[in-house]
Amino acid sequence: MKLLTNTEYRITNVIHFFISLIWFSIFISTLLLSIISSPVLAQDGIDTDFGGYLKELGQISVSNDLGTLRYDNVLHHRIESEFDFGKGFEVRADMRTRLLNGWTVRNSPNYTDFLDEDPGYFDLSLTWINTDQTILHSTIDRLHLSYITGPWEVHAGRQRINWGKTMVWNPNDLFNAYAYLDFDYEERPGTDAISLQYNWSYASSVDLGYRIGASIDESVIAMMFRGSLKNYDIQLVGGSYYEHLTLGAGWTGYVKSAGFKGEFSYFHPRQSFWDETGHITATIGGDYMFSNSVYLNGELLYNSGWDSAANPVAELMQPPTADDLFMAKTGYFVDASYPLTPLTNISGGIMGSFSRPLAIFIPRLTHSLSNNLDFMVLAQVLKGSVLEDFTETPNLLYFRLKWSY
After folding, report:
1. For the CA atoms of the chain, what is the radius of gyration?
2. What DSSP designation does 161 have?
3. Among its keywords, does the record have Membrane (predicted)?
């Protein structure tokens, strides 16, 4: 196996890792102490709430013939904060910081530029350490002012506008589509936007959203109506999605005791409205809990706007666009989970396509070590020429320890 080149190289890598870890710990400790111990907020009568987690994530990637083995490591810290100023005004500010080491950092010359490319209108990312061995990178993915009074809600800044109904693929999620396989980012990305919501009942509202862009072709302006019809929650979505006009709908409900949900959106080129045809992205899914506590869920995707020229492996961990949610024209996902004990859960899933030769197997085990300490083992096994031709090590195994506070 090709592990590491020599002893000297391993020693150098270990030294760089621990130096970076020390700086990382100093930075995080200073930040937490300066915020939590600040007397100014208490004196001004501002209610504050802080939380977050620290995660250690190791990744082993192996070739099919077991001849190549690579290791990557991520030490991931997140701090979440909320400030209640009274009279309906609130501020939320969340930051994620990651210390990255391993094969990918050593062998990807442009990896720092990739991490530092902030997808929002404002650049809220910063690289603290950038060496051939180690990268320490931070990004603020929530930073918004909210005003909530009665049925009205107004949010301005980096936020998450979640309009999706289904779990894996979300054609209605015009602002914050996310990559399902990026399991280590549970909070999902935010966007620089202004959103307005009016709620006239628990299940009924009108939402307006504007994702800030330099031009209308770089912006999203959309409206959603949400209501109920018999035993179903429904929504209608429409607006301008970058270079397209879009119209869609979604629903959640039950067929007997099984959950039933779905979404679809139609996208049509705005500037060449009469000369070009549009395309549809649609997904339908369901879930069911058996009497023996086995939980089963699945989804089907029709993705007529997919880009056949894109690198499929690069798309796995990157947030897709609502009009191109997958690396193929069709997709399917099936997952089953079972609680072995109240503290231990196992699951197994498969994601694939009917129209391209690809399949991704996703077995997982999670165990709660204590109230705020969790351990997880997860694999992503990439099969099919579409995936294997783009990566030398398509078999991924992750180990994660998460401490929440």
Report:
1. 23
2. -
3. yes
Virtual CA dihedral for 312, 316, 319, 325, nearest 10 degrees?
A: 60
The whole-angstrom distance between residue 240's C-alpha and the CA centroid of its chain comes to 23
Task: Dump pLDDT digits (tens) for 52-70.
Answer: 999 999 999 999 999 999 9
Residue 151 structure tokens: 């049925």
Element (H, E) at 25: helix 7-36
Which amino acid would we find at residue 297?
N
> Which of 35, 20, 32 shows the shortest CA–CA distance to 137?
20
d(CA 363, CA 341): 17
d(CA 320, CA 327): 9
| SS3 at position 216 | helix
Q: Among residues 116, 158, 120, which one has the least CA distance to residue 138?
A: 116
b/e map of 183-209 (b: 16 or more CB within 10 Å)?
bbeeebbbbbbbbbbeeeeeeebebeb
Bridge pairing between strands 191-201 and 152-159: antiparallel
AA identity, residue 8: E
Cα distance between residue 191 and residue 80, in whole Å: 16
pLDDT digits (tens, 9 = 90+) for 326-376: 999 999 999 999 999 999 999 999 999 999 999 999 999 999 999 999 999
Q: Which helix (H) or strand (E) holds 200?
A: strand 191-201
